């Protein structure tokens, strides 16, 4: 564990220093676009924070290559090189878009290219789905499924990047939970290059988010931009695929391997990677349906994302971000507790996770919709006072 803690601290420290340098250089050379109609912030702010995050991630991988503990991660160097090469490609395209607003077709093409590099040259694919021994039928099906999964997660994470500290905080929570899960898989199932790679990627992303968040917290001095959000989505998708797509389905049938609940054990490897990005996926899905129903491109920008709706409900920027944090922690920790309950044979097995989830949902719903009630009461009070004020004016 101490090697992972060192990785997190190293990545966080380097990312913070690099982010500060990128911020200062961006201000000096005015490397920031103007305010767009859909933007929440009112002051032009640099969007090149993703560059600092990428360099921090790159440095962490370089250091790990020299550490014997991470030799299993580097068991297949071509896989790592393909992953980093695809990440570099997506960061470059993201930077160009942050500076000059590229056409969405160019960005989407680059995303498919990056995902294809990982799946083809990196051989990081969804080979099996751990549900009742279900294996992917052919190499082309595996390749296609992997590419689409990576592209969807990249765009899902990018779509929620609209408030100060939102993406960095959500990804910090999600990767922390996923790191705990993948680390426990190594403990329960034994050493695996895929499981260790998933743990390492999650640890690196935790560090990158921790290091970037101080400059991105409201009021933000630096945004991660498309380069940072797409990078986070890409690496999170690869971390999930390294676990879910490479678990031997035969293990699921053995109750001693995945806990006493065979059904739960079968679904957790798929469920947890999904729930840690549930809010981004939900926002992405709603945006695609909303835009296509109006005959627009699914990537045409608008101001109707979930975080925009939270602001319209009466939440402040910071409150909306904290509520997103709460929902992310709720759904991801609930599933993680179910897994812990079955593997450690807690009383009630996964029911503890269900109980936590029910209480958390109730609390989050109250906090989420409270501003609407406040605003409705304020509006009613204004309507009652209006006649009196009108008479006074007369």
From TrEMBL:
Q: Name one GO biological process term.
A: cell wall macromolecule biosynthetic process
Q: Does the keyword S-adenosyl-L-methionine apply?
A: no
UniProt topology in membrane:
Multi-pass membrane protein
**Keyword vocabulary terms for this entry:** Cell membrane, Magnesium, Membrane, Metal-binding, Transferase, Transmembrane, Transmembrane helix
Cofactor(s) for this UniProt protein: Mg(2+)
Recorded GO molecular functions are: metal ion binding; phosphotransferase activity, for other substituted phosphate groups
Q: Tell me where it resides.
A: Cell membrane
Residue ranges crossing the lipid bilayer per the database entry: 6-27, 48-67, 79-96, 108-128, 140-159, 166-185, 197-217, 229-247, 267-289, 320-344, 350-370
The cellular component terms of Gene Ontology attached to this UniProt record, alphabetical and capped at eight, are: plasma membrane
A Pfam match: Glycos_transf_4
Presence of the UniProt keyword Transcription regulation in the record? no
Which residues does the record give as Mg(2+) binding sites? 158, 226
Q: Identify the InterPro entries for this entry.
A: Glycosyl_transferase_4, PNAcMuramoyl-5peptid_Trfase_CS
Q: What is this protein called?
A: Undecaprenyl/decaprenyl-phosphate alpha-N-acetylglucosaminyl 1-phosphate transferase
Origin organism of this chain? Microbacterium allomyrinae
Q: What is the lineage of its organism?
A: Bacteria, Bacillati, Actinomycetota, Actinomycetes, Micrococcales
């Amino acid at each position: 564990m101490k090697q992972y803690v060192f990785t997190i601290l190293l990545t966080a420290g380097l990312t913070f220093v690099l982010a500060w340098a990128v911020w200062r250089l961006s201000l000096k050379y005015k490397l920031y676009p103007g305010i767009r109609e859909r933007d929440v912030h009112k002051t032009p702010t640099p969007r090149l924070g993703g560059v600092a995050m990428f360099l921090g991630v790159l440095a962490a991988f370089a250091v790990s290559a020299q550490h014997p503990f991470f030799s299993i991660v580097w068991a297949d160097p071509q896989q790592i090189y393909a992953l980093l090469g695809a990440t570099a490609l997506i960061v470059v395209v993201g930077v160009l878009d942050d500076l000059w607003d590229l056409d969405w077709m160019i960005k989407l093409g680059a995303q498919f290219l990056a995902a294809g590099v990982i799946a083809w040259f990196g051989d990081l694919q969804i080979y099996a789905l751990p549900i009742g021994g279900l294996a992917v039928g052919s190499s082309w099906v595996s390749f296609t499924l992997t590419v689409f999964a990576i592209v969807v997660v990249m765009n899902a994470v990018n779509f929620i990047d609209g408030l100060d500290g939102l993406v960095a905080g959500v990804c910090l929570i999600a990767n922390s939970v996923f790191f705990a899960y993948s680390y426990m898989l190594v403990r329960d199932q034994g050493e695996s290059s895929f499981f260790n790679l998933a743990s390492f990627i999650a640890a690196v992303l935790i560090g990158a988010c921790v290091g970037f968040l101080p400059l991105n917290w409201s009021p933000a001095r630096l945004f991660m931009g498309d380069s940072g959000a797409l990078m986070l989505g890409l690496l999170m998708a690869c971390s999930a695929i390294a676990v879910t797509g490479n678990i031997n389905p035969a293990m699921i049938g053995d109750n001693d391997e995945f806990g006493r609940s065979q059904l739960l054990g079968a679904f957790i490897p798929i469920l947890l990677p999904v729930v840690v990005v549930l809010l981004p996926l939900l926002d992405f899905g709603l945006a695609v349906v909303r835009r296509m129903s109006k005959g627009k491109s699914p990537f045409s920008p608008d101001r109707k994302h979930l975080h925009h709706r939270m602001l319209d409900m009466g939440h402040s920027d910071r409150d909306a971000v904290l509520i997103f944090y709460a929902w992310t922690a709720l759904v991801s920790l609930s599933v993680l507790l179910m897994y812990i309950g079955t593997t450690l044979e807690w009383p009630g097995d996964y029911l503890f996770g269900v109980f936590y989830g029910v209480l958390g949902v109730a609390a989050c719903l109250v906090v989420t919709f409270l501003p609407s009630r406040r605003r409705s009461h304020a509006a009613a009070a204004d309507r009652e006072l209006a006649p009196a004020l009108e008479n006074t004016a007369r």
